[in-house]
Specification:
712 residues, alpha+beta, 6-stranded mixed sheet, 6-stranded antiparallel sheet, 31 strands
Length: 712
C-alpha cells in the first residue's frame, strides 16, 4: 500500500511543478505535436529566477497564441532568395554609406540608385532565385511555432525594451502589446522573428541623422522602395511576409502596415496596427500603423497615402480599432451571449476600440422596447457596398432595458441594430449627436424619424453623390484657359476662339467660338498658373460635314429638370470632329476625347489635329468629374429607410434627372446606380432639394478631431 501512496505523491508533486497558468495549459492542449516546443520555451525561462519577467512574457505569448492563425504559408524551395537579398542588401548598404537623410531623394542620388538597381536587376535576371510556393489552409500558431523562433524573439524584445530610448519608458503591460508580439495582424503570414528583423533593418535605421520617428520612417521607406527596384519583376501575387518588399507585387494597406509594425517593434519603437472597417462617405476599410512616443503622444504611418484614414474630413472613418495580441476582456467576442452572432471583423477577442484616441466621443444610452437574449447591440453606419457597416458596439442592460454605448462620435449618422443569425435588425431610430458649441454646453441628441409617416410625394433627383470640393477647386483653376485654332501645326497663325471666364460646372457645357472659319488645328491651352488641362471631355462640333467624314453625333448637353425638356425643339444636328490618328497616333486614346469624364488630361495643351480644315460651330467641354450626376442610360434604384432599406422604385435615366412619384417623405434616402459607379451617399429631401448627409446637414467640426502627427 505504501509504495502506491508514494507513487501518487511523487506524481502529484511532479504535476504541481509542471503546471502552467490555465490559459497556457489550454493553448498547450491545442498544440498537438508542437506542444513539446512550446514547453521548451516555458522551461527555458522558468528554471532561472532572473528570467521571471521573461517567463511571464512567454506565458503571455503562449496563452494568447490560441487566438491566432495564418491562412496561408510560403514554402521556400531553397535559400537562393535569401542569398540574393544578402547581396542586394550589402550593395544598398555600401551605396548609403555617407548619404544624409536630407539627400536621400536628391536627383543626384536618385539617378545613382537607378543605375545600381538596373545592374542588379540584370544580374538577378540571369540567375533568378526561386520564388516561394503559397500553400492555402488553416495554420494555428500553437501547432507551428518552434521554440528557437520564440526564444530568440523574446530575447530581442527584452533587449530593445531596455536599450532603446523609444521603448525603455514602457510599462510591462505596454511592452506586451507594442514590442513583444511576434505577429501584428492575425491571419497574416510571418516568417521572421524580431531578432532576424532587427539584424536586417537596424543598420539602415541607425543611419538616421536626427533619430526621430519621421527620419526612421524615411529611411525605412527608402530602403523598401529601392531594394525592391533591385529585384526583377516576379509574379509573386500572394503575400510572403517581410519578403513582400522584395518579390511581392501585391501591395495593400494590410501587408504594408503588418511589415512596418514588425520591423519597428524589432528595432525598439512601440508600434501597433490600427484599422477602420468603414468610412463616412465611401466603401472599403483601411489599415495603418500607430506609433507611441515617450510623451504619450501618438503618430501614424500610412504608406498607401490613403489620407482619408486620419485626415480631418467627412471622408474619415467613424471608428478605429487596434489589433492586439492578447485577448481583450471587453471585446465583443468575450462579451457575447452563448450562440450570439457577431459581425465578421468583431469575431475575435484580439481587438480593442481606440476611437477615443482619434476623436472626441460621448456615451449614449438608448431604450430597448423588446426582450433580447443578446448581450450586445451595435451602431452601424451607411456603407455603399452593403447599405450598413458596423461602427461600434454597446452592451445590453437587461434589467433597465437600455443599450449603453461608450464611443459615439459627434456628427455621425448611426443606425442602432442588433444581430439575429445573419439578419441585422434595427431597434431604434437613426440618430446623430451634435458637438457642443462651448465647453459649457452639452451635446444634442438628434433622432431621425418621419413626423408624418404616412405622407407621400414626389422626388426630383439630380445626383447620387455630392460634388467633390477638390474637383470643384480644380475646375476653378481652369479660369483663363483658352481655345485656339490655326492652319499651321506650330500655331504661329493662331486665332482665339474663346476663353473660360467663370468656373465651369462639373458636367458638359457649351461655348460658341468668336471666329468661325475652316481650320486644320484646334487646341485648348491651360493657364500658366495651373498648367494642367483638367479636361474630362472636349468636343469640337460642326454641322458642315460629308458622309465620308464619318463623324459621330455630339454628346448631348445636360437636361436637369422637366422644364428643360422641349419635345418640339429642332436644333441643328452637330457632330464631333475626330482626331487625325493616322498622323497623330499618340492621340488615339487621349483622355480629353474619351467620353468618360472621370479621366482628365494632365497636359498643358490638348491638341485636336484634323484630316482637313473644317469649321467649328460649338465647343463642348467638361472638367474632370466623378460623374456622380444622373447619367443618361444608367439604371437607378431609390431606397428609403424604414427599419431597413426599402425599395421605392427603379428608373432608367432618359435625362440628367430622375423623378419618383408616391414616395414616403421625410426619410433618409439612398440612390443606387445599378449600371456603374461606386460612390453613393444618403441624403434628405427638403423643399425640392437633395441634402446630402455629411455635406448639407450633419457637418463635422475640426474641434471634434484630435491632432495626431501623420507620416506619409
Amino acid at each position: 500500500m505504501k509504495p502506491i501512496l508514494y507513487t501518487i505523491l511523487i506524481c502529484t508533486l511532479v504535476l504541481a511543478c509542471t503546471r502552467y497558468p490555465a490559459g497556457v495549459e489550454e493553448t498547450l492542449s491545442q498544440a498537438g505535436r508542437n506542444r513539446g516546443e512550446l514547453e521548451k520555451v516555458l522551461r527555458h525561462y522558468r528554471e532561472h529566477p532572473e528570467d521571471s519577467l521573461k517567463y511571464q512574457a512567454a506565458c503571455f505569448l503562449i496563452d494568447n497564441m490560441k487566438w491566432h492563425l495564418s491562412t496561408e504559408r510560403a514554402v521556400f524551395p531553397d535559400s537562393s532568395l535569401f542569398e540574393w537579398h544578402t547581396r542586394f542588401d550589402s550593395l544598398y548598404t555600401n551605396m548609403m554609406a555617407t548619404i544624409p537623410d536630407t539627400a536621400l531623394y536628391s536627383d543626384r542620388h536618385r539617378e545613382r540608385f537607378w543605375h545600381f538597381s538596373y545592374a542588379a536587376r540584370q544580374l538577378a535576371s540571369v540567375f533568378p532565385p526561386d520564388t516561394p510556393t503559397i500553400v492555402k489552409g488553416t495554420f494555428p500558431d500553437p501547432q507551428y511555432i518552434p521554440s528557437t523562433f520564440l526564444i530568440s524573439h523574446i530575447e530581442n524584445a527584452f533587449h530593445v525594451w531596455h536599450a532603446s530610448p523609444y521603448a525603455s519608458y514602457l510599462t510591462f503591460e505596454q511592452f506586451k502589446e507594442m514590442i513583444l508580439p511576434y505577429r501584428a495582424v492575425t491571419g497574416y503570414s510571418f516568417y521572421e522573428n524580431g531578432q532576424k528583423l532587427n539584424d536586417m533593418f537596424s543598420k539602415h535605421l541607425n543611419k538616421s541623422d536626427e533619430k526621430t520617428y519621421a527620419r526612421f520612417i524615411s529611411r525605412y521607406d527608402h530602403y523598401k522602395d529601392y531594394i525592391h527596384q533591385m529585384y526583377p519583376y516576379y509574379q509573386q501575387l500572394q503575400h510572403v511576409g517581410t519578403y513582400d518588399m522584395f518579390v511581392g507585387q501585391k501591395y495593400d494597406c494590410i501587408s504594408l502596415a503588418d511589415n512596418f509594425c514588425h520591423v519597428f517593434r524589432a528595432y525598439g519603437i512601440p508600434t501597433v496596427v490600427d484599422c477602420n472597417i468603414s468610412f463616412r462617405e465611401r466603401t472599403g476599410r483601411h489599415f495603418h500603423c500607430t506609433l507611441l512616443n515617450s510623451t504619450g503622444k501618438y503618430s501614424k504611418y500610412n504608406q498607401t497615402r490613403n489620407y482619408s484614414a486620419s485626415k480631418i474630413s467627412t471622408a474619415a472613418s467613424p471608428s478605429f480599432f487596434r489589433n492586439t495580441f492578447g485577448a481583450q476582456a471587453d471585446s465583443p467576442f468575450m462579451l457575447k451571449a452563448e450562440g450570439e452572432t457577431l459581425p465578421d471583423y468583431f469575431d475575435t477577442p484580439c481587438i480593442r476600440e481606440v476611437t477615443d484616441e482619434n476623436y472626441r466621443v460621448a456615451p449614449v444610452q438608448l431604450p430597448i422596447d423588446k426582450e433580447l437574449s443578446n448581450n450586445l447591440v451595435y451602431l452601424y453606419t451607411f456603407n455603399v457596398s452593403e447599405g450598413l457597416a458596423p461602427a461600434t458596439w454597446g452592451t445590453v442592460d437587461h434589467q433597465q432595458k437600455k443599450a449603453r454605448f461608450k464611443n459615439v462620435v459627434y456628427n455621425v449618422l448611426y443606425f442602432p441594430v442588433y444581430l439575429k443569425g445573419d439578419s441585422i435588425i434595427p431597434f431604434a431610430s437613426p440618430f446623430y449627436i451634435t458637438s457642443p458649441d462651448t465647453l459649457y454646453t452639452s451635446a444634442t441628441f438628434v433622432p431621425l424619424y418621419p413626423e408624418q409617416p404616412g405622407k407621400k410625394g414626389k422626388l426630383l433627383l439630380k445626383r447620387k453623390y455630392p460634388e467633390k470640393t477638390s474637383l470643384q477647386y480644380r475646375a476653378s483653376l481652369m479660369i483663363g484657359g483658352r481655345f485656339e485654332a490655326a492652319n499651321r501645326e506650330d500655331f504661329k497663325d493662331a486665332v482665339l476662339l474663346g476663353t473660360i471666364e467663370t468656373t465651369p460646372i462639373l458636367n458638359l457645357q457649351e461655348l460658341t467660338p468668336e471666329i468661325c472659319r475652316p481650320f486644320r488645328y484646334y487646341r485648348y491651352v491651360a493657364t500658366d498658373s495651373f498648367p494642367t488641362s483638367n479636361m474630362g471631355l472636349l468636343e469640337y462640333l460642326t454641322d458642315e460635314y460629308t458622309p465620308e467624314d464619318s463623324l459621330p453625333p455630339a454628346t448631348a448637353l445636360p437636361v436637369c429638370s422637366p422644364e428643360e425638356i422641349n419635345p418640339n425643339r429642332t436644333g441643328k444636328c452637330y457632330c464631333t470632329l475626330q482626331v487625325d490618328t493616322n498622323n497623330y497616333r499618340y492621340l488615339r486614346y487621349y483622355s480629353a476625347y474619351n467620353p468618360n469624364m472621370q479621366y482628365s488630361s494632365y497636359r498643358k495643351i490638348d491638341l485636336m489635329p484634323l484630316k482637313r480644315p473644317m469649321k467649328v460651330k460649338k465647343i463642348r467641354y467638361a472638367p474632370a468629374n466623378a460623374e456622380n450626376h444622373i447619367v443618361v442610360g444608367h439604371a437607378y434604384q431609390l431606397m428609403y429607410w424604414d427599419n431597413g432599406w426599402k425599395n421605392a422604385g427603379t428608373r432608367l435615366a432618359r435625362y440628367n434627372f430622375l423623378q419618383f412619384d408616391n414616395v414616403p417623405l421625410d426619410r433618409i434616402y439612398w440612390l443606387r446606380d445599378l449600371t456603374a459607379g461606386k460612390e453613393e451617399h444618403p441624403f434628405f429631401y427638403k423643399d425640392g432639394k437633395q441634402l446630402f448627409i455629411y455635406h448639407d446637414t450633419i457637418v463635422p467640426r475640426a474641434t471634434e478631431f484630435y491632432h495626431i502627427e501623420n507620416h506619409f
